[in-house]
Design goal:
CATH class of one domain: Alpha Beta
Radius of gyration: 79 Å
Bound molecules: adenosine-5'-triphosphate
Strand content: 5-15%
Oligomer: single chain
Number of helices: 20
Distance between the termini: 175 Å
Helix content: 40-55%
Subcellular location: Cytoplasm, Cytoskeleton
Largest sheet: 9 strands, mixed
Shape: elongated
CATH topology of one domain: Kinesin
GO molecular function: ATP binding; ATP hydrolysis activity; microtubule binding; microtubule motor activity
Number of strands: 18
InterPro entries: Kinesin-like_fam, Kinesin_motor_CS, Kinesin_motor_dom, Kinesin_motor_dom_sf, P-loop_NTPase
Family: Belongs to the TRAFAC class myosin-kinesin ATPase superfamily. Kinesin family. KIN-14 subfamily.
Pfam family, one: Kinesin
Length: 762
Amino acid sequence: MDSRIPKPSFLKKPTGPLSLPGNARLPLTRDLLNLPSANSTMFAKVRMPSPDKRSESGAMVNRAKLRRSRSAMDLNRPDFHRPKYTSTLAPVASRAGGNINASTVAMMVSSDLVKPVQTSSNGSRVHHLRRSRSACDIAMASNVSCSTTSSSASGMSSLAGFKRQPLPAAHTNSRTAVPPAKVSKMTTTSTTIPPRGAAAVSKPVTHRAAVAASSVATATARKVAPPVKSAVGAKVGSSAKLNGSDASKTSGVGAKTAAKTMNKRIPPYDYKARFANLTEKHKALMEKHEKLQEEHASRESLQELYDECTRELELLKAEHAQLKAELETIRQCNDELSQTNQTLSASLDRTEAELNKLRERYTVTDRENVTLRMQLKELQERAAFLEEENVTLQDANQRNTELLFHANIERKDLHNMVMDLRGNIRVFCRVRPPLPSEEHRIECGWKYLDEQSIELIAMDGSNKRMDFSFDHVFHPRTTQQDIFDNVSPLIQSALDGYNVCIFAYGQTGSGKTYTMDGVQDSLGVIPRTVDLIFNAVKDYRRFGWEYEIRVTFLEIYNEILYDLLDTSGTTKDLEIRMANAKNKTEVYVSNIIEETVDTTARLHQLMNIAKLNRATAATAGNERSSRSHAVTKITLIGTHQEKCETCIGSVNLVDLAGSESPKTSTRMDETKNINRSLSELSNVILALVQRNEHIPYRNSKLTHLLMPSLGGNSKTLMFVNVAPFQDCFTETVKSLRFASQVNSCKLQKVKKNKVLSGNGVV
Ligand SMILES: Nc1ncnc2c1ncn2[C@@H]1O[C@H](COP(=O)(O)OP(=O)(O)OP(=O)(O)O)[C@@H](O)[C@H]1O
């Protein structure tokens, strides 16, 4: 108790001190004892004189006591004015419809809106606050509980918070100044309720209704609504709230009635009434305390339920997330399976379509198979018949082959007979045309009397005329092909096993090399002979003949033999030797390279090599004159396997060096050797024409090498080439006379070569 205020003696009447259960502490102060109660009505008619008046009347009144209780009594006096802060908060509460809960109050407290006026320097307003605190606490507690039960559970929490923060001991034990915050809270809360007396009366009713509503709501929420379906409980709670609002309204009516009762003042000396009043208040507070305890217990169970629900909710959330993930996975699997199903369905459709096509094809093929079997049977019968016929035809074919073989032999004999009739040595005369660069040169007069005769007329004014006859005369416009058409029968003889020699004779620049070798666009006798031989070899295979073709390229320069295929650079001694002792006209050249060729291309390649190795130089009549005698020898060895026959023929293709007048020669030794060898050739021809016993073949390398062709078993063709110019007239006449001698020469009858056991040729 306040030390400054002595405890009145009438307070000792209660049997014992008031005690509240639990932590609730009723701030039973001296101020509260001065509060009017419902029982004070019994003292309503006993009007106590005013202390002041009584002082004026001189009554024995303890003024100090009266003065101390005055503030409490003033609260119930009609002329009593509430502290300023009460009027400040009242409009706020009215604006809120008188339904402000504890949280709202707390918010208002924390704001400046309901700041109590406590700045008085003399502490008068603080004094009012001190006096009304205990009453305010009670009123606030009841009002807060009412507002809480009629509004929401949060209000209850605020109430509980209020209880856990009792007033400071300094405040309860002494009359020192209350902290502004605490005062503000208490004051603000007290302003939300009706006047104190009304609150005391209406509190039990309101509280019971609210608690009942809350209990029903909680119980309903527990029974009806599981934690997941809290919305149902919330609805029930909201209905309880509505009920609480009704209860609050009811309590508002009761409060008005109680206020009227409270207005009846309890005289300060009526301690009994005041004690009764306090007892009732104590009883009400006890009931309230019990209710609050029950509610607190239910709250705790609700908290446990809430925690359990929260845990279950977490578990359900986790399960929901897991199920969601599984659902997503299943959806993806489902999509994949759908796609796979679509693909497989499409594939199945295609397969069925293909199967149907195959079935149709099988049906068609089956029908065709039946037809083909029938045809096969017919064909087998036909094959048997044809086989018999084939045997017959094979016999006939064999007979025909035999006949053909003999016919071919007969053809060869007839061919050679014709060749013999034409002469074993024949002469073709060819007059070359002037070149574009030679248009200024004067030509002789040429008269081509027929294919074999020609008349030469000198254009030097002497008007000399000379006639010459040969086996054939070719004028300047004769083509290489025309020339070769007349040569090819001799090549045919070589394939039939005869020796053939073709050589070109004439003055330098008269066209010998052109006739024998030709140029790139106009091939001569030698390359055409090569082509003919290879083509003929192919044809002869049909008659069973297989040919082996060998070639040698030889050069006689200054009476020395050179191998034109030898590119080694070393000089070999090439000698002309007798091949057969019995046949003294058959010769061969020792140490010469003899190439066996299988293709035309290879033979042309070898010809080019030989051409490059041949000695050439410029002469007065030819810029690129052949200064040597070139001999190309092609040996043809034919074999008939069935008949066991072999025939060997040869073709000697000779491009002689051109004769040159010593007057115009710049290389005398070369010219002398050339002219001498050509002169020896003339001597041999003359000896053959005169049928001399001795034929001087060995006087020169050229005649020795051509011995088999000139005097032996050979078919010989000589080209006499002449230039058309007047300045060549003398040499031309000389060549034509020599050719005429050769043409008149009658060689012995040529015999076909026969092969001996040692590959020797007879
Ligand atoms: N019938 C022809 N038609 C066109 N041009 C020809 C004919 N005959 C020869 N000629 C040309 O005349 C020139 C001389 O001919 P070629 O070289 O054949 O003479 P040659 O007798 O071989 O001379 P040499 O004895 O000096 O070697 C060459 O340019 C050649 O192309």
